[in-house]
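Worked problem 6 (solution included).
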Amino acid sequence: MPQEYCLPIRVYVEDTDAGGIVYYANYLKYIERARTELIRTLGYDKPALFGDLQFVVHSVEIKYRQPAVLDDEIVATARLTAVSRTSFTIAQKVLRNDKVLVDAVVKVACISQEKKRPSAIPDDMLKVLQAAV
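Solution. The predicted structure is:
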């Protein structure tokens, strides 16, 4: 069964607009944190850098369903859904009391830090990622 990481978050004033609603770009921060922590649970403490390689967001598909508001307790989730030689895809959600506020699909690409071109994920990491799907 795929591993899902859940990150509890409290909504603070700094997260909201003048109306007390979470500013849309902050959801990207929430899901980034959950994605980072998921990769950390797989044994990779520095998920953005791996020797000469770097992991970068290739694309994000996001749907805003309902707003979170000031002082809400929400949860950002991350679950690996696909792995290829040069990328992986993560399904993500932001929830309040099991109600989906935001759905996202994020594709993360492995690139050469020097050339900024697609590069193969190291074999040992690839096996770990594939086992987590």
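Discussion: Strands lie at 4-10, 49-50, 53-64, 73-83, 87-96, 99-112.
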